[in-house]
Amino acid sequence: MNHEAFVQSRLDLVVRSTEIDVNGHVNNAKYLEYLEWGREDFYEQGSLPYDVLLGLGLITVTANININYRKEAKQNDLLTVITRPGRIGNTSFTLEQTIINTTMDLLVADASVTLVMVDATTRKAVPVPNVIRTFFV
């Protein structure tokens, strides 16, 4: 697989009524879902969807999410989740993510997500393979 031209993914979404909490804005837990959707899009845009990774006998496991909630988002706001490579180690890597409210041109949240590469059978950490490392050049 050639990932050389791939730098980041951008996933657009609309805030739905079911994502709003009693305070009238997006519930904090929903942002974690938005980030997950962004990571899935990142892998797909990089020609490495889940089934391909699993076919290699590998999965990624989220080990840490450090999120900063910057501004509130409300129903019908248009959001963009931007996901790009961060750092890479031996068995883990980070993806840097931002959520932009494109309706108001505001940074809503930013996060650094640490993922661990795991053997799908043994469930043990393994070195990050080259198909992932190519994202980090």
Automatic annotation (TrEMBL):
Q: Provide any one GO MF term from the record.
A: fatty acyl-CoA hydrolase activity
Please report a single Pfam family linked to this protein.
4HBT_2
Transmembrane feature ranges: none
Enzyme class, broadest EC rank = hydrolase
Record EC number: 3.1.2.-
Ordered alphabetically, the record's keywords are: Hydrolase
Q: Which InterPro entries match?
A: 4-hydroxybenzoyl-CoA_TE (IPR050563), HotDog_dom_sf (IPR029069), YbgC/YbaW (IPR006684)
- Where are the annotated coiled coils located? none
Similarity field: Belongs to the 4-hydroxybenzoyl-CoA thioesterase family.
What NCBIfam families does the annotation carry?
YbgC/FadM family acyl-CoA thioesterase
| The protein, known as | Long-chain acyl-CoA thioesterase FadM
Q: Source species, please?
A: Sulfoacidibacillus ferrooxidans
| Taxonomic lineage from the root | Bacteria, Bacillati, Bacillota, Bacilli, Bacillales
Gene this protein is translated from: fadM_1
